[in-house]
Write a structure and sequence with these properties.
Elements: H1 6-23, H2 43-61, H3 69-85, H4 93-112, E1 123-130, E2 137-144, E3 154-160, H5 169-178, E4 189-193, H6 204-219, E5 222-232, H7 234-245, E6 252-256, H8 276-281, E7 300-304, H9 310-322, E8 328-332, H10 341-357, E9 365-370, E10 377-378, E11 381-386, E12 393-398, E13 403-407, E14 409-415, E15 426-429, E16 432-435, E17 446-452, E18 455-458, E19 484-488, H11 496-516, E20 522-525, H12 531-536, E21 538-541, H13 549-556, E22 563-564, E23 568-571, E24 574-577, E25 581-588, E26 596-599, E27 623-627, E28 639-644
Parallel strand pairs: 3-4, 3-5, 5-6, 7-8, 13-15, 19-20, 19-21, 21-26
Antiparallel strand pairs: 1-2, 2-4, 9-12, 10-11, 11-14, 12-13, 14-17, 15-16, 17-18, 22-23, 23-24, 25-26, 25-27, 27-28
Helix pairs in contact: 2-3, 2-4, 3-4, 3-5
Length: about 650
Amino acid sequence: MRILSLPLLLILLVLPTLAAAQELPAIPPIKRLLPPYGNELSPEVRAVLEKRLQALERSIAKLENSPQLPDVEIFTKAVSCALKFDEFYTAKDVDKVHWALAQAAERLSQFEQGKALWAQQTGLVVRGYRSRIDDSVQPYGLVIPENHDFKKPCPLYVWLHGRGDKATDLHFIHGRAQSVGELAPPDAIVLHPFGRNCLGFKSAGEIDVLEAVAAVQQQYQIDSHRIVLIGFSMGGAGAWHLGAHYADHWCAVAPGAGFAETARYQNLKPENYPPQYEQTLWGVYDVPDYVRNLFNVPVIAYSGEVDKQIQAARVMEEAYANEGHKLTHLIGPGMGHKYHPEVKQDLLARLAKIAAEADGKAPDKVSVQTRTLRYGSQYWVQMEGLVEHWQDSRIDADWPARTVATKNVSRLKLNLAPFETRSSEFLTIDGDRVLLPQVARGSQEILSLVKIDGHWQVSNSDAQQLRKRPHLQGPIDDAFLGPVLVVLPTGKSSNPRIAQWVDFESQHQLERWQAAFRGKLKTVTDQEVTAQDLQRHNIILWGDPESNAVIRQVIDKQKLPLAWNAESLELGEHKLAAATHLPALIYPSPFAADRYVVLNSGPTFREAHDRTNSLQNPKLPDWALLDITTPPDAAQPGRVIAADFFDEAWQVKPRNP
């Protein structure tokens, strides 16, 4: 018998795999919707712009980071993105690039001299900050009164802009340097967050608003108790969403037009509804599910009388009425999709009065309503556990009456620091009497309560058993609201279709993040990632156990409810062929107590959902099993065989027949 040489044997073993890979048809590219494709520059013009940009980028790279450095980098980033994605829509857009490069050069010169004159500038000011999600620089605009006293705390108005598909970094910052916008109160600073362009102030756009506010508070004297949230159209939708989910951040909320939920705004009929898990995920952002939070803060809605988007305020009027409240709703007579001048002045006068009278005291009556622990906190009340996620969950706390009423809540915390208690004082929660600790005013006393066998009692410890908890509750998209690191595989799957899908979809998601989310996700390989990386970030793992050593590590340690090898894939009661199936899922990280691991997924809304911000919602729950013989496209990453939420202990639920 002839013995084959080792090199020849390896060739014979590899050839079938290579042949199978070659036989696979290429996955069709996915056309982006955001930003729209613009005009290509001539090679000569592009070469000039790139040369100027690269010179500035080299100079910036030599500088040490500081809070003012993003104020320089926002200009070079804007130009870089415009060149990469051809964001040139008119003949004058090249002039905007020259303007941005000149601004970068001027600020760079000041920075190198230890100056930041723009930090004391009044009028229209464009600035930036570095996001904790992806370390990208994100721009924001300011309107600062001409005679502003920089040493005196002042109110802050947060204005959320309308939809502008072409209003990418370059066009946004140029506009913010040229136009005051809808409002310029004489005694307040106005902040124009970018919202990562066109995400409806959801997802990373939601975090952008919060981070921009924090950046302004670091750079200017802002009275944190007098922050007004206002917006129109897409910004009105953002004001509804951010107002309801973060009611304790604002002294007043003023949504104009926009949308407040998904199904009714989209005129969906039950026969056209998406899968049940996607309907459930409407509960992440649908504002009627959070309406009781809005009872904590003054809300003034505005609509044009003949504007179709009056629908949002009508929906919220109904939600208010269902809870025994009435929404203040100003209507511009005869107006379409814009403010009526007189009604707008009335609105701004009301907001100014509310801001002037805000005293910063914590309300002694607080309502919390949510469907997820991501948004379970208002003022001194914090949900810590739910009986079951995605059900209507409530806390109504009345300090003067010393009562708390809950619904679908298993754990909670009360920060009693704003209040004083006397010895032997009781709190009644759902009929159970709990002895309160004595608290001195100004202390940070936290009362933790847990429901056991149907009754509430003081919890003296927070055992770290695996359970859903605030900011560690899923779904997949939740990972992209915190620090993210993408870990790419260096190995090769023995299944050619898996290797092809992972290569295509991982690169597609990186490019989509840069184009639509206006940042750049940090990436390392499974061989480069460090223990510090794993502890600091939500880790996005692409590949399978053969190709990605980190996936293999978490499975070998049995940290995921998943059995996966080259032949089969098992999750709960599901067993599938590993050659054509992949899991996309989120799970608490085995490397850090407050971080996630995600397998094979970016944000789950895709290009097909960018046509309207009302569809930019999570599309997959905590886990999904994908049949990748259906290639990824603008709507889905593959055919979803099964998908569901983990239970409250992060375990797979029994299959629903």
